[in-house]
């Protein structure tokens, strides 16, 4: 982290008014701006880009707690290789805007082949054909397609949602063996980061359809760029002229006061930022954990929506060995004999086309297993990690790793988890309420808006969801600033293109038909 006060040079260029101690050479204590963007992840950057390029609004400021933009897209070095602690895949290439940006900026990525996989149990590799492979095939080829059609029927008929577990059960899936647990985990938890019993049946399948079928190309590519996946966000932000004059880095917002007349944010370093309107892009986890307080408290319908949606945790654990002891596959699936979700998915990066010769592989744990792992010491977790590998490959073949690193997302007050999952028992109305603005009787008087990965109806949990939500929120705010919330020809186009991907927007003004209850 850069020292507090390192925002000073960029402030010099600020077009915003600066009051207070600045004249006496101390850091300024009050800043004013028209639109304050709270958080500089994909959503905040996308909103800023849209305000600037689509609405010609230049008086905006991003306030970000970290030393750089990018939020949940973060890479770290292990053995001089870059690995991603957060987002890693470009999911569903088709119309995914992140795919277009990755190509534009030359961010290195490659096809990620989920079928290039070896299956393991406690007794080691199960061979070419075994019960684990059989269970995965049955889930993917028989159960899931049937469940997809069934969820679609429920939605069309207006029937209430189920849990994913119940939806699967109604379509012939009733896991009772370690192999079936692992197969279910690989197809469900490893994507949603929560088990089927906690997930919405319709919400899960609708989201799957949108990213992987509606996008026109269900291919997943994985980013392996030495400068990190974050380049997609950093370079998109750099397109904004004089970017530094629009960003305050290293400023942790601790409370947000909102009213009809505007929004005031206070940071832990004593800075006050006053804005006519603000867009809060902090993660759902941050909102759920009261890391930032709102004054007055948010309305109860908003609090209910925030409380009921799920912030999940998807934790990647990386190790580097002197040399690889695995074969040339991209994935290893492990069925633990007595604990569902115990180190089930492994990804060797030392495999052809990836980081050959690196000795790196990583495991992913989610949900309760991730919470457990985050509370272990590094050494405790390393012992569990190596223990599973020794069951898979044999004691003699697995040495101690030379490096071992992992993030603790849930304990990080800037994130409090990794991405959202549509929980069983969450209504469409609650999902819409998460992004409805507050601050006025009418939306035209709203001052505080909400946006993020979590407000995306179709792409919650994904980087492309954050991208579209930022754009959509910016277009609504621009309409309110420029036309008292009345859309014009110009912005209708912007909205349409955003709405194709995120059709349900703000609560009163933009309310739309609800497709399932
Ligand atoms: C482990 C993991 C794996 C993922 N895998 C994928 C994937 O493979 N593909 C994919 O498409 N998506 C993936 N995602 C999801 C994707 O990363 C997110 O959807 C997206 O980055 C969210 O962007 P955001 O701007 O909405 O939120 P954030 O990135 O969380 O941005 C919010 C910003 O607010 C800042 N902030 C928080 N609190 C404060 C405060 N008090 N004061 C000031 N600033 C604050 C944060 O530092 C952050 O920069 C993954 C995420 C994680 C964590
Ligand atoms: C953008 O706004 C500025 C004034 O703020 C104006 O001079 C300029 O012409 C505008 N550009 C466009 C494309 O509308
Ligand atoms: C580390 O990686 C970077 C980027 O891939 C490369 O330029 C550099 O030469 C590497 N350094 C060493 C010591 O291998
Ligand atoms: C998902 O897509 C399948 C195949 O196109 C379709 O049959 C089903 O109705 C869709 N389900 C939902 C919930 O959208
Ligand atoms: C999806 O896109 C990738 C990258 O452009 C391409 O290689 C692949 O063939 C496409 N797949 C389909 C099914 O269109
Ligand atoms: C917000 O934080 C500031 C700075 O720490 C503090 O002075 C103020 O009392 C807080 N306001 C509220 C409403 O909590
Ligand atoms: C790896 O390949 C070797 C040689 O082909 C084979 O004997 C071994 O069983 C394979 N192991 C795994 C886990 O696939």
UniProtKB/TrEMBL annotation:
Pfam families assigned to the protein according to its UniProt record, in alphabetical order: Amino_oxidase (PF01593)
Amine oxidase domain: residues covered: 42-477
Entries under InterPro entries matching the protein: Amino_oxidase, FAD/NAD-bd_sf, Flavin_monoamine_oxidase
Keyword Signal (UniProt): yes
Signal sequence region: 1-23
GO annotation terms (biological process): polyamine catabolic process
Keywords associated with the record: Signal
Membrane-spanning parts: none
A GO term for molecular function: oxidoreductase activity
Domain of life, source organism: Eukaryota
Protein's recorded name: Amine oxidase domain-containing protein
Organism: Sphaerosporella brunnea
């Amino acid at each position: 982290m850069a020292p507090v006060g390192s925002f000073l040079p960029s402030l010099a260029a600020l077009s915003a008014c600066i009051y207070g101690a600045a004249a006496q050479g101390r850091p300024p204590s009050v800043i004013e701006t028209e639109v304050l963007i709270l958080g500089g992840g994909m959503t905040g950057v996308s909103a800023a880009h849209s305000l600037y390029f689509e609405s010609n609004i230049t008086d905006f400021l991003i306030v970000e707690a970290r030393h750089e933009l990018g939020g949940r897209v973060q890479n770290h070095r292990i053995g001089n290789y870059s690995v991603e602690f957060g987002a890693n895949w470009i999911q569903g290439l088709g119309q995914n805007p992140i795919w277009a940006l990755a190509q534009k900026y030359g961010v290195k990525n490659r096809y990620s082949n989920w079928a290039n996989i070896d299956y393991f149990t406690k007794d080691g590799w199960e061979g070419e054909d075994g019960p684990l492979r059989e269970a995965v095939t049955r889930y993917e080829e028989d159960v899931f397609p049937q469940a997809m059609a069934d969820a679609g029927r429920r939605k069309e008929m207006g029937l209430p949602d189920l849990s994913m577990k119940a939806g699967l059960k109604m379509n012939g899936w009733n896991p009772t063996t370690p192999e079936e647990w692992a197969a279910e985990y690989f197809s469900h938890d490893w994507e949603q980061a929560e088990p089927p019993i906690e997930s919405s049946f319709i919400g899960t399948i609708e989201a799957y359809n949108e990213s992987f079928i509606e996008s026109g190309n269900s291919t997943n590519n994985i980013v392996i760029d030495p400068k990190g996946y974050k380049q997609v966000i950093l370079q998109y932000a750099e397109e904004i002229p004089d970017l530094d004059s629009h960003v305050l880095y290293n400023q942790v917002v601790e409370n947000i006061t909102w009213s009809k007349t505007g929004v005031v944010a206070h940071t832990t370093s004593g800075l006050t930022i006053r804005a006519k309107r603000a867009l809060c892009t902090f993660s759902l986890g941050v909102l759920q954990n009261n890391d930032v307080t709102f004054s007055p408290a948010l309305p109860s319908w908003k609090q209910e929506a925030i409380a009921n949606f799920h912030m999940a945790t998807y934790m990647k654990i990386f190790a580097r060995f002197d040399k690889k002891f695995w074969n040339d596959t991209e994935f290893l699936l492990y069925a633990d004999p007595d604990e569902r979700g115990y180190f089930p998915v492994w990804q060797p990066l030392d495999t052809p086309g990836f980081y050959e010769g690196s000795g790196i592989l990583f495991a992913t744990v989610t949900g309760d297993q991730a919470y457990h792992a985050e509370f272990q010491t590094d050494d405790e977790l390393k012992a569990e990690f190596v223990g599973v590998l020794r069951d898979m490959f044999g004691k003699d073949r697995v040495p101690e790793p030379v490096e071992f690193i992992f993030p603790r997302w849930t304990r990080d007050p800037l994130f409090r988890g990794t991405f959202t999952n549509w929980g069983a028992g969450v209504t469409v109305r609650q999902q819409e309420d998460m992004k409805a603005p507050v601050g006025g009787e009418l939306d035209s008087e709203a001052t505080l808006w909400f946006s993020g990965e979590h407000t995306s109806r179709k792409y919650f949990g994904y980087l492309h969801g954050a991208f579209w939500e930022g754009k959509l929120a910016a277009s609504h705010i621009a309409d309110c600033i420029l036309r008292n919330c009345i859309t014009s020809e110009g912005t209708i186009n912007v909205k349409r293109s955003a709405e194709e991907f995120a059709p349900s927007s703000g609560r009163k003004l933009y309310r739309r038909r609800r497709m399932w209850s």
